[in-house]
Write a structure and sequence with these properties.
single chain, alpha/beta, Dihydrofolate Reductase, subunit A, globular
C-alpha cells in the first residue's frame, strides 16, 4: 500500500510560516535539496493545498528553462512535471486538468482510494491548511519535519486542531550542516 508522506519545514517554536505566510527563515542548501530529491524520487504523486499548488504551478513548470537554472531547479522541475498532482481545495472545484486532480469533497475516501492503488509514495509538500486537515483525518502515514534553528514567535502552526493525541514513532533523524534537523516519524 502506498504511503502519504508529509514534508514540512518548521521553526523550533512550531511554526511553518510567519503570520503573513513568510518563509524567508527556512534554511535550504544543496545538501537539503539533494536529500529531499531522494524523497521525491520515491514518489509519483504530490498533494497540495490550493495556495501551495498555485505557488508551485507559477514556478516549477518553467523553472528548468531559465538560463540560470540550478541543478535543483532542473531536477525538481522534471519531477514536478512528471508526477500526478492532487489539490485539496473547496474553491477550485471541477477544474481537473492533465495530471492535476482537484479534491473538494469526500477527501478522506479519495485519499484512501489513492493510497490503495499501485505506485510509489504520495508526498504532501508544505500546504499547512491541507496538512492540518490530513492530520485531523489520520490520512498521513509518515512525517518528515525539517526543524530549522530559528524562533519566529508567531505564524501558522505545524499542527492545529488535532483534538486528540496522535502517537508517532521516531524512525530516524538527519542533521544537516545548515543546522536543520530532519525528523522522520511514522504513525
Amino acid at each position: 500500500m502506498r504511503k502519504l508522506v508529509l514534508l514540512m519545514h518548521a521553526s523550533i517554536d512550531g511554526f511553518v510560516a510567519g503570520p503573513k505566510g513568510e518563509m524567508n527563515w527556512i534554511k535550504v542548501d544543496d545538501e537539503l535539496f539533494d536529500f529531499v530529491g531522494g524523497l521525491t524520487d520515491q514518489a509519483d504523486t504530490a498533494v497540495y493545498g490550493r495556495v501551495t499548488y498555485q505557488l508551485m504551478e507559477s514556478y516549477w513548470p518553467t523553472a528548468a528553462d531559465k538560463p540560470n537554472a540550478s541543478k535543483h531547479d532542473i531536477d525538481h522541475a522534471r519531477w514536478y512535471k512528471s508526477v500526478s498532482k492532487i489539490v485539496i481545495s473547496s474553491s477550485l472545484k471541477g477544474k481537473d486538468a492533465g495530471k492535476t486532480r482537484i479534491l473538494s469533497s469526500h477527501i478522506p475516501e479519495q485519499i484512501q482510494e489513492l493510497k490503495g492503488q499501485p505506485g510509489k509514495n504520495i508526498l504532501m509538500l508544505g500546504s499547512p491548511t491541507a496538512s492540518h486537515y490530513a492530520t485531523q483525518k489520520h490520512l498521513i502515514d509518515e512525517y518528515w519535519i525539517f526543524l530549522n534553528p530559528v524562533f519566529i514567535g508567531a505564524g501558522i502552526p505545524l499542527f492545529k486542531n488535532t483534538y486528540e493525541a496522535i502517537n508517532l514513532k521516531l524512525i530516524t533523524t538527519k542533521v544537516f550542516s545548515s543546522g536543520v534537523i530532519g525528523l522522520h516519524y511514522t504513525k
